[in-house]
């Protein structure tokens, strides 16, 4: 870090080295260089930066840890200030009697998880980047993760949000109670709005007691179609696993190459199933799943001890970063969400597209809720293949919408999916969103150039 | 029913007998008499009624079964047409492979439950009025019910909404996938908007596989405070009951008077706890709850068979209608929602207020999520006591907001709570809601006079 200048006591920088750092995120999006980066430490400092910026006519780009996969946190155009929330890292309250916690937006998801463990509590949303990503960013993108199948996404845990609007006005939406019908749920509108309506400055979340026990099952399949068909059968059996992850053979090879866990790489697909609850009960559920899988020629192994389970998850979470290590290929990643009865059809279609185009497609993700991370691996420095890659993206999105799905399950639209938003939403719906945007931010200061 | 007139083939009436029927709901709200009632049978007919009404300058009041507790479905002011959705009662699809169902808005909650049973599925939200209330009304008020503690409210199951706007434009928000981050979640804004933004014409819901088994426990307490303190302890133990209902002694007496179930009426409070899941597992959970209750001097009985359980629920659901049978008293009912660590404090405060004012207050409801139905029983035809009743409402609401709660957990604001909305929401928040209202309904045709 460099010597920082101060704006009325607030850390701020206009040094090129800082500015470049804040012009990209974890996506392939190319952002522009901001004029300033500011690091407020509390709500009042956010307000002051916002007032200073808007008075100067600067647009505002709120940012958590920059682990976003859609370019939502990178500046677009000129005359921007990035407001980084990374210095707002305080867990303000853990209330084990009300099962709530209140945090500043820059708190790291994984760090909150650790603090909650002391109280035998846990916060279900667990994006793969949980060791780095912030709760504020999670709220701004309505982040999910493997546990969403059983526990839902960020939206399901977010009870109250304090937000700084572009006028500098601070409003708190929601409260600490679990149920509420008191006018329009504006909080719900803010969740997943990717920083375009205001800056989230304080968050109250619902948390849960930790489950008693966990069992992990690995099920391998010779056919990707069978893996896809097994998923709705497991859910239909009345069991709700804690996670129900899908990995195709390319993922398994990639993991083996980097971790040597002894995973079977000769199969076409693997399901990673976790059950939580009372031990005898989840053991019985495990047996039921083994039986279901067998009907689709799936073979099951059980990962019993804590360390083999943790290794497996570390490996699972590393897939996305690992894909960046492939020397000659560049990933275009999307995270489609499909109705689970069309999961098998989707996986087969992805295989087909890969074969037709002769471009490798690596798929993994949250099979239990139909949310698949699709990585189209185009040759580096091959502009023509890259163009083809984006045509494939469009083809996949069109397919997804036809079968009743969504072009993003948990990453958001940002700038990388903005060119495709029309495939998902009709004109009227986009007009309504734009009008809502004007209600909150009439002069268009907040995170311009995103979503629509 | 009377002879109906037709508007381009759509049933409509301006007969006084019909109009009076549609001027009230299940609340104490006094509505005005509409000029017309129309009964469209599909989306296209809704559009035609909307266009006809707005061309004539008539305001529109959408209505399900009229079981609302806040007056949200009753006309206010002059020149209104009630659009009743009760003829739109078709379950259009049940998809047991995707765990979704698509229904018309007039489908009765309980009838949907019955149809789902054939597929061994269930729809969790279960308001007490489930035998009468419609899914459309449930969405408009974000209805909950006893099972919300484990399964959440209507919001958590609503995947897609087709809506007719006041211009006659039809827009579908959401789709059949379980996860989505594709711009602002306008669907979430519509849920709980009490018909003020548009008319819900088609609904896709997520449904779940039926649980294997159910156990019901009755726990009685000599002190209302102990009952309140037991609730967070049960949840903190890692058990999430299917229901965790609270009934005070007045409720128990009321039930005994009408049903003679042999309930203990000498106690101060009762918890009605239901567990669902795999039998051995919930039995063990049941034992754990018995232990926890014992620490607070709670005594537990188990209702094992289906019929005693069903009777108990029938009785529980009848409390609200039973309150109307008290000859000399009139109920002012509210449904506050408080953080559960303040539940005990709230129950004690309600008792206190009742004693201080010498007006009976009967409380029951969903203790597990802090949502309590409070009934202030004022003397009939005693305007002074009624005025005092409303002062008590205000006092309770102020208390609730102070401790971080909500003035309505599942009924909504409608017209009965509109005078108190300022207690809950700040000026800026109300202004934002009004601006959002103008985005959807710039000329103010939709359900005027409600919420704010």
Automatic annotation (TrEMBL), chains A, B:
Q: Which InterPro entries match?
A: FAD-bd_oxidored_4_C, FAD-bd_PCMH, FAD-bd_PCMH-like_sf, FAD-bd_PCMH_sub2, FAD-linked_Oxase-like_C, FAD-linked_OxidoTrans_Type4, Oxid_FAD_bind_N, Vanillyl_alc_oxidase_C-sub2
Q: Which Pfam families match?
A: FAD-oxidase_C, FAD_binding_4
Enumerate the spans annotated as FAD-binding PCMH-type domain: 29-210
For the keyword Zinc, the answer is no
Fetch the SUPFAM superfamilies from UniProt: FAD-binding/transporter-associated domain-like (SSF56176), FAD-linked oxidases, C-terminal domain (SSF55103)
Superkingdom to which the source organism belongs: Bacteria
Annotated Gene Ontology MF terms? FAD binding; oxidoreductase activity
Q: What does the record give as cofactor?
A: FAD
Keywords tagged on the record = FAD, Flavoprotein, Oxidoreductase
Protein family? Belongs to the FAD-binding oxidoreductase/transferase type 4 family.
**Protein name (database record):** Glycolate oxidase
Lineage from the top down?
Bacteria, Pseudomonadati, Nitrospirota, Thermodesulfovibrionia, Thermodesulfovibrionales
């Amino acid at each position: 870090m460099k010597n920082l200048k101060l704006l009325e006591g607030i850390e701020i920088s206009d040094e090129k080295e800082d500015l470049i750092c804040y012009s990209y995120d974890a996506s392939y999006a190319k952002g522009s260089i901001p004029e300033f980066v500011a690091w407020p430490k509390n709500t009042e400092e956010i307000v002051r930066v916002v007032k200073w910026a808007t008075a100067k006519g600067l647009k505002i780009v709120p940012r958590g840890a920059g682990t976003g996969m859609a370019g939502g946190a990178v500046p677009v155009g000129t005359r921007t200030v990035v407001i980084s929330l990374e210095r707002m890292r305080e867990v303000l309250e853990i209330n084990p009697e009300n099962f709530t916690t209140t945090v500043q937006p820059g708190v790291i998801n994984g760090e909150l998880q650790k603090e909650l463990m002391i109280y035998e509590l846990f916060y279900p949303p667990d994006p793969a980047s949980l060791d780095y990503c912030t709760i504020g960013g999670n709220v701004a993108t309505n982040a999910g993760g493997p546990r969403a199948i059983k526990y839902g996404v960020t939206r399901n845990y977010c009870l109250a949000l304090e937000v700084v609007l572009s006028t500098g006005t601070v409003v708190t939406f929601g409260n600490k109670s679990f149920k509420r019908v008191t006018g329009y749920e504006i909080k719900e509108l803010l969740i997943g709005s990717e920083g375009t309506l205001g800056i989230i400055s304080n968050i109250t979340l619902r948390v849960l007691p930790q489950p008693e026990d966990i069992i992990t099952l690995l099920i391998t399949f010779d056919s990707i179609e069978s893996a896809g068909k097994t998923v709705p059968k497991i859910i239909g059996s009345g069991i709700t696993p804690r996670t129900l992850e899908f990995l195709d053979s390319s993922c398994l090879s990639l993991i083996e190459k980097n971790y040597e866990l002894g995973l079977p790489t000769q199969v076409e697909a693997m399901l990673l199933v976790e059950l939580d609850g009372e031990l005898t009960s989840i053991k019985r559920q495990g047996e039921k799943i083994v039986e279901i899988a067998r009907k689709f020629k799936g073979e099951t192994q059980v990962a019993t001890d804590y360390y083999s389970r943790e290794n497996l998850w570390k490996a699972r979470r590393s897939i996305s970063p690992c894909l960046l290590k492939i020397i000659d290929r560049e990933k275009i990643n999307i995270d489609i969400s499909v109705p689970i009865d069309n999961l098998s059809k989707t996986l087969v279609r992805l295989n087909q597209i890969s074969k037709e185009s002769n471009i490798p497609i690596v798929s993994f993700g949250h099979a239990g809720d139909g949310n698949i991370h699709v990585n189209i691996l185009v040759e580096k420095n091959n502009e023509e293949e890259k163009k083809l890659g984006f045509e494939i993206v469009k083809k996949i999105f069109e397919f997804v919408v036809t079968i009743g799905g969504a072009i993003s399950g948990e990453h958001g639209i940002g700038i990388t999916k903005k060119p495709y938003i029309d495939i998902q939403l009709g004109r009227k719906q986009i007009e309504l969103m734009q009008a809502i945007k004007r209600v909150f931010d009439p002069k268009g200061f907040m995170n311009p150039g995103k979503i629509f």
